[in-house]
Specification:
single chain, 337 residues, alpha/beta, 8-stranded mixed β-sheet, 3-stranded antiparallel β-sheet
Length: 337
């Protein structure tokens, strides 16, 4: 019997989608629902976990299993699911406030352990649901309800943070880019371990226009540094600018006409050492000028839990199911011969 062909409608719930008019979350939801049928995974084997914030509504709008967790605990809940059910496709939807404040510890350890979950971080550089306070990614000097004289805290760079946590897949995309966003999500879905995707997402009420340098078609053509594996890092309306690596190891933005294409940095997503990807993540302090988007890193490392499952299977094969279960449920200590 042939498998049933999945469609976008199979992943759309019957709940009314409710975000503010113009919110970037609508575009991300549409992209996810549109590309999921390509994966061939039936909705009953998919789980979306969310935390607190505007992004927390996401789980209600996917016709899959889902859980709306408490503040910042999405990665922890997803880790438990991944440990119990290797057959599930598990996705975490979170925001910059949810993931990087109270949830920061859960996020970095899920990435460090390479838990097989896909984490989508909607970054609008503001607290939206609680009405416009400064978030961990709000820029210095940002005037908000919680920082009336301007933020004095250095913001997180989510890509740098993920790379510092030794994440095996790290990428950045933009909510309204109808080609780039699905392409990055497909790559994240194909990755065996933890995948971290930062999505620049516009908040039209409390931080409108924060990413216009990339979201606007004309400005995006000038400022978006598209990272492509095996290709020179160049950008601009006519690809007239590029990135080079100096003798001191620092990356610099240059005019290609001045240095020649052979001098440009060639992007390697599979590079084991994350230092070059980290340097790329630091090219722009804010997304108001030339900013890298795309896949920064995609490497393989043992996936959390699977090695243990393999060892238990081998132990059962050697000793027999009954003997192993008796051992596991015996005293607090035992002797291994």
């Amino acid at each position: 019997m042939a498998a049933t062909e999945l469609t976008k409608a199979d992943f759309q719930s019957d709940q009314e989608t409710r975000w503010c008019p113009g919110c970037g979350d609508y575009a991300v939801l549409a992209a996810v629902q549109s590309f999921f049928p390509e994966l061939g995974i039936p909705p009953e084997r998919v789980v979306f976990v969310s935390g607190i914030g505007c992004a927390g509504r996401f789980a209600y709008y996917m016709d899959t299993y889902g859980m709306h967790g408490i503040h910042g605990r999405g990665p922890a809940l997803a880790t438990g699911l991944a440990a119990a059910r290797e057959d599930l496709s598990i996705w975490v939807v979170t925001g910059d406030g949810d993931a990087l404040s109270i949830g920061g510890n859960h996020l970095i350890h899920a990435l460090r352990r390479n838990v097989p979950v896909k984490i989508l971080l909607f970054n609008n550089q503001i607290y939206g649901l609680t009405k416009g306070q400064a978030s961990p990614t709000s820029e210095l000097g940002k005037v908000t309800k919680s920082t009336p004289f301007g933020s004095i805290d250095e913001p997180f760079n989510p890509i740098s943070l993920a790379l510092g946590a030794e994440a095996t897949f790290v990428a950045r995309t933009v909510d309204t880019d109808k080609q780039h966003l699905p392409a990055v999500l497909r790559a994240a879905a194909a990755h065996e371990g933890a995948a971290f995707v930062e999505i620049y997402q516009n908040c039209p009420v409390f931080n409108d226009g924060a990413f216009d340098a990339l979201r606007d078609k004309k400005q995006g053509a000038v400022n978006g540094i598209r990272l492509e594996h095996g290709q020179p890092v160049r950008f601009g309306a006519e690809l007239e600018r590029g990135v080079t690596r100096g003798e001191d190891g620092d990356l610099r933005i240059v005019d290609v006409a001045d240095v020649g294409e052979d001098a440009l940095l060639v992007h390697d997503v599979h590079r084991a050492d994350p230092s070059l990807a980290f340097a790329l993540s630091r090219l722009s302090a804010r997304p108001t000028g030339p900013t890298p988007i795309g896949i920064f890193r995609d490497v393989q490392r043992p996936v959390s839990g699977r090695e243990l499952s393999h060892e238990l299977a081998q132990a059962r094969a050697r000793t027999g199911e009954a003997e192993l279960e008796a051992l596991l449920h015996s005293a607090d200590s035992w002797t291994v011969r």
